[in-house]
Amino acid sequence: MSDHDQSPHLTASSSNSNSGDALPPVGEHARQYETVRNAHETELIEDYVELIGDLIQHRGEARAADIATRMGVSQATVSKMIRRLNELGLVTSKPYRSLFLTEEGQKMAETSRARHDIVLHFLRALGVNDHTARIDAEGMEHHVSNETLSIMQRFIDEQTRR
Amino acid sequence: MSDHDQSPHLTASSSNSNSGDALPPVGEHARQYETVRNAHETELIEDYVELIGDLIQHRGEARAADIATRMGVSQATVSKMIRRLNELGLVTSKPYRSLFLTEEGQKMAETSRARHDIVLHFLRALGVNDHTARIDAEGMEHHVSNETLSIMQRFIDEQTRR
DNA sequence: CAAATAGTTTAGCCTTGGCTAACAATGATA
DNA sequence: TATCATTGTTAGCCAAGGCTAAACTATTTG
Ligand SMILES: [Mn+2]
Ligand SMILES: [Mn+2]
Ligand SMILES: [Mn+2]
Ligand SMILES: [Mn+2]
């Protein structure tokens, strides 16, 4: 277990036992899970596009091999994914050459990057260790509504101007 | 689009452009994505177990049909999932009867419930609307480290005692 | 410029988590 | 008690996202 996994007191923190709360109305409850399922459909795509954008920006080009090592995944997996991104109109690619983002891809990369940054900076502003904040942000970013994002941004601003 | 999706100003918030930051070291970066992939393997399981626990607690029993409507998913999908939970030693079930959690299942339900509650209460304490907070919490909960969870708990406590 | 190395793609396999349609059991009610 | 509505199961389909092994292309180097 890394320091990402120190155990806090997760059981029976009396100050916030939800046991008394009733279950949400069925329809609402179902829509919550549905939102999560939808997020899961797009998150990998977003992470790839965001990473490709970052590689182009910081390295000058995005090569499949780099994506593979960065993502911790086989090259075959990346190759397959690139085909998908292509079909979705997010990247353009010629066989055996490096990748480029389409207009739409660039837009997605920017949006994802901005969202990712807000979540990361928010966690740091909250007091979370940088290393942990990076890990948490990578997963959380896809499940944060725009409403929450705005509030996080406000929190960062307040924290910063001080 | 629901009110969950109001657009804030996501592009070019100068105060937190990460563009200057270099990419993280490769190994670290890969481990971030790996952590997310691992979370995705367990999250559905956790949500099922948590929901089963909630149904037993609030309704007296957990029936497959209720799980299906709550999750917004077909009964066939639930039936298949129950077989998996069984194999994992998280629930016991006799054909055509309602479900019970094993010791291990109960432990997981409690832990998940506690984590879910902290995230939900944290979001509300931050100022997020209850409806949105519920949606966000359902997805975020699986990507929040124990370190962050502790900090969220502290934040709630401070907010509450005031 | 030929060979070796590095990078990319393809084929084929697997698991997960959805679905629909058909069938089976249970339990309520006529 | 026989019937029917509700609930649960099974079979078979699909897409996504992993993998390894093998084939192919590009680039570097002797
Ligand atoms: Mn991510
Ligand atoms: Mn990201
Ligand atoms: Mn939950
Ligand atoms: Mn959840």
TrEMBL record, chains A, B:
Domain HTH dtxR-type: 42-102
UniProt GO molecular function: DNA binding; DNA-binding transcription factor activity; protein dimerization activity; transition metal ion binding
Record key words, sorted: Activator, Cytoplasm, DNA-binding, Manganese, Repressor, Transcription, Transcription regulation
Keyword presence, Protein transport: no
Highest taxon in the source lineage: Bacteria
Location in or out of the cell: Cytoplasm
GO CC terms of this entry: cytoplasm
Feature: compositional bias, Polar residues: 8-20
Region of interest: Disordered: 1-26
One Pfam family matching this protein: Fe_dep_repress
Keyword Transcription: yes
Family, similarity comment: Belongs to the DtxR/MntR family.
Subunit and interaction comment: Homodimer.
Physiological role: In the presence of manganese, represses expression of mntH and mntS. Up-regulates expression of mntP.
Descriptive protein name: Transcriptional regulator MntR
Species assigned in the record: Vreelandella songnenensis
